[in-house]
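S1.2 Input.
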Amino acid sequence: MDHVACGATEGVAYWWRGVGSDGSDMNLTSARHKADTMRLTVWNVDLVAAVSYTMTLVGYLTGNPAVRGSDSLTVYVEPQPLQVALSGSELVVGSSTPLLADASASTDPDNEPGQIAFAWTCSRPADGQDCRAPGGALLELRGNSAATLTLDLSADGASVNYTLGVIGTKGARSASASMQVTVREGQLPVLRITQAPLEPVSAAIKLTLSVDATSDSSGTLARRWRVAPLNGSPALALDNTTLACAGVEGADLVLRARAMYPGSSYAFTHIVTDAIGEAAASMHVQ
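S1.3 Output.
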């Protein structure tokens, strides 16, 4: 039964008040929150994560305010998880160029005061050992809480695979991300992902992926994109102009709206080749 329809509203006035478990006053107003009606409007910017709010509706007779009644409800605001993201999921780099790991796109959906603190890890999946510099010394990552990290990684004369991880912490919340890095001996093109989604994207909108590339080698850089379906997703043909409208052999790859099926996921890889060798950067899109 609708309490509004059954209530005797004629000659009755209403007012909401609210208080948080942290002692804060919600400062409810008639203009912003409709606090003088039976239906209160509270905006997400009025609430702080991990705080309980008790909101009380008081109704009284306008002719005799001493005749009144009230009812309350309590709402707990669940903190949203941190969104920790690395620029890329897989990289192929040369040992002659330092690797820049970038987690600066990580965000706090709750916008709580303070900064996200980062802790970095690096290991070699083949033997579980910690990462080493080209001279053989162990890389010291402790105490580095910045969002970016520059590493000199050894290729051991050929090629070595590394797993680079980062944990972001803010208050009681934490989240992590990782990427796979293959280091090959020598000087390869240096790639930097400049545009890629950090969250699941809508299949109904256009998707743009971008990678910047530089090289110490003279001559033209050859670029190409490839895609691999993940988790049983249907195949995606980048040379189909009804799906991709630009960039199969350029720095930017643009997929038309509805090129991907809802619920599908893919690994997009940008490969750059110069006169010396080949480098690659991959990103996962869901």
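S1.4 Remarks. The longest strand covers residues 159-170.
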